[in-house]
């Protein structure tokens, strides 16, 4: 009797294990990455932003802004006045960085044949 597993079945099994591992990694990445900052964390991030606005990246500012938006939309957190000022400051900073990025682009050269 020949009890040896054919090579193609070993390859299929290996690929299956590899794919399921990839699915596990992706699920873990999204479950960790989608955690929203809580009220205290948002307050800390806003204070950090006020002290040194340039330290935070645009993506981090976007995360803070979306967290503030969620907090603002929740019914139970209507008494937080710091949210409005922080939201406004972050929006101005993001617009300012966008404008600076546009200014850094080189101007198109005019044709000298005129």
Calculate the mean pLDDT score and round it: 79
Q: Assembly state here? A: single chain
Question: Roughly how many Å apart are the termini?
Answer: 90 Å
**Class based on secondary structure composition and strand pairing:** mainly alpha
Largest sheet: none
The amount of beta strand, in percent, is: under 5%
Radius of gyration, CA atoms, in whole angstroms: 25 Å
What is the share of helical residues?
Answer: 55-70%
Low-confidence segments, ≥5 residues, pLDDT <50?
none
The geometry reads as: flat
- Count of runs of 4 or more consecutive helical residues: 4
Order of helices and strands: HHHH
- What is the β-strand count? 0
Structural write-up:
With 114 residues, this protein is mainly alpha-helical. The chain has a domain at 38-103. The protein is built from four helices and no strands. It has helices at 7-33, 39-51, 58-73, 82-104. The longest helix is centred in the first third of the chain and has 27 residues, at 7-33. It is flat and about 75 Å long. The protein starts with 6 loop residues before the first helix and ends in a 10-residue tail after the last helix. The mean pLDDT is 79.
